[in-house]
């Protein structure tokens, strides 16, 4: 046996329970989930989608739509319609996981064949890497708030990085450390991560609610001027902006919609995801952007500053008043948001990338290995460039749907209409 062959043999993953031998088509993380790994109930799947909607991206996402010249009412209307569409597509695409306990990679084999499935899987891997880096950068901003609450020197740290980089020294330190502390959670099995999601979602939602109440209270109980501003544009322009806004909002979550079965395969019952998906997307997914709009509007009216991101608000507390009270508030809020970003990144991007790599190269990748590789590759994405302006972020979000929407549509049509919920799974994992 040659040296290369020995090295490849050494790198092969262990078979694990339910798999006699690892092949180029299967390992323990690719085959249908056995009863022991089906640990997710209604609440677990509710918090799975909730963690997506209690993030900085969801809080600030409405600002991108508002920058188009739409009113707050129109912006929330677009978000609500977008979330209804997302929830419907997510539920339809979740069915293969609920019925047969198979993930996205097997669904791709059903639709495109063994070799053709690689295209859709590779696209998903690329998106997972990009999104991991993007959310890691946002998480690093929250972690910087925690460090700033500990040390005034960190708060006032001198920047030694050129302005063309769109990142300062303080943010670089936060980004490196955030990426490092994001690695240990990836070692946990996805089916055991649900309880952590429950804690993080609950804490983050109430932290967001508290920040909104604080901003409105500071403004004398008034939501601010943005809440009453009207849009001034022609009906034709408004109509196109609505279409663009709905498409952009869907595009921001299209990657998550595409791999729904990756997580519903861990469900105890076929439709455990039904009520949780609807509630998390339609209710939580609309309330959180609304809170972001209200707090930003009230803050602008009170202090004359445009602050959209929670981490910016936390830094404002520290820069305005570095007292023990402000530092304590900044520490707890920063910690909660950091935890939220880690949980969302782990579940939505780390595990997702790991599952896709596991399906693409089952001999050499399980979910854990793939998740670590996804995290390491995300360092080269330079995610700080995604957040220079709101318009840039909208463009990035909308571009994702160009790749994923056709794949989602094909999976749904194939499963529900062509095959009528009938699959021969054995032929896909031999």
From TrEMBL:
Q: What UniProt keywords apply to this chain's record, in alphabetical order?
A: Membrane, Transmembrane, Transmembrane helix
CC terms in the record's Gene Ontology section: plasma membrane
> Which InterPro entries does the UniProt record give?
NCS1 (IPR012681), Pur-cyt_permease (IPR001248), Uracil/uridine/allantoin_perm (IPR045225)
Annotated membrane topology is: Multi-pass membrane protein
According to the UniProt entry, where is the signal peptide? Answer: none
| Record localization | Membrane
The residues that cross the membrane are 46-70, 76-100, 121-150, 170-188, 195-217, 239-257, 278-299, 328-352, 364-381, 393-418
The domain of life for this entry's organism is Eukaryota
Report if keyword Transport is assigned: no
Do the record's keywords include Disulfide bond? no
UniProt GO MF annotations:
nucleobase transmembrane transporter activity
Family the entry assigns: Belongs to the purine-cytosine permease (2.A.39) family.
Record protein name field: Thiamine transporter
Task: Give the species.
Answer: Meyerozyma guilliermondii (strain ATCC 6260 / CBS 566 / DSM 6381 / JCM 1539 / NBRC 10279 / NRRL Y-324) (Yeast)
């Amino acid at each position: 046996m040659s040296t290369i062959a020995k090295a490849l043999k050494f790198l092969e993953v262990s078979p694990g329970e339910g798999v006699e031998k690892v092949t180029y088509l299967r390992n323990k993380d690719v085959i249908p989930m056995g009863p022991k790994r089906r640990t997710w109930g209604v609440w677990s799947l509710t918090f799975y989608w909730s963690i997506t909607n209690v993030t900085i991206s969801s809080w600030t996402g409405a600002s991108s739509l508002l920058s188009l010249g739409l009113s707050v009412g129109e912006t929330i209307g677009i978000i609500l319609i977008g979330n209804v569409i997302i929830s419907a597509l997510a539920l339809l695409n979740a069915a293969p996981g609920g019925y047969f306990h198979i993930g996205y990679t097997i669904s791709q084999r059903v639709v495109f064949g063994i070799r053709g499935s690689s295209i859709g899987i590779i696209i998903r891997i690329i998106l997972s890497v990009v999104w991991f880096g993007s959310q890691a950068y946002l998480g690093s901003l929250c972690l910087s708030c925690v460090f700033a609450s500990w040390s005034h020197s960190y708060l006032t740290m001198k920047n030694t990085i050129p302005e063309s980089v769109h990142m300062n020294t303080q943010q670089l330190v936060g980004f490196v450390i955030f990426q490092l502390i994001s690695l240990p959670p990836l070692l946990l099995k996805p089916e055991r991560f649900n309880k952590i999601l429950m804690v993080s979602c609950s804490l983050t939602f109430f932290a967001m609610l508290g920040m909104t109440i604080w901003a409105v209270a500071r403004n004398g109980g008034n939501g601010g001027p943005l809440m009453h501003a009207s849009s001034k544009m022609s009906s034709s322009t408004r109509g196109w902006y609505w279409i663009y806004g709905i498409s952009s909002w869907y595009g921001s979550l299209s990657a998550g919609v595409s791999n729904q079965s990756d997580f519903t395969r861990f469900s105890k019952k076929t439709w455990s995801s039904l009520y949780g998906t609807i509630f998390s997307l339609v209710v939580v997914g609309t309330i959180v952007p609304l809170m972001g709009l209200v707090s930003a509007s009230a803050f602008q009216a009170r202090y004359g500053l445009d602050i959209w991101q929670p981490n910016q608000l936390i830094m404002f507390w520290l820069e305005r008043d570095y007292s023990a009270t402000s530092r304590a508030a900044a520490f707890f809020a920063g910690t909660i948001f950091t935890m939220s970003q880690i949980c969302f990144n782990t579940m939505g991007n780390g595990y997702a990338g790991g599952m896709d790599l596991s399906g693409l190269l089952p001999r050499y990748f399980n979910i854990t290995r793939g998740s670590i590789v996804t995290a390491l590759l995300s360092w080269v994405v330079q995610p700080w460039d995604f957040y220079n302006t709101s318009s840039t972020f909208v463009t990035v979000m909308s571009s994702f749907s160009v790749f994923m929407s056709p794949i989602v549509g094909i999976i749904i049509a194939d499963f529900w209409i062509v095959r009528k919920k009938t699959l021969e799974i054995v032929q896909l994992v031999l």
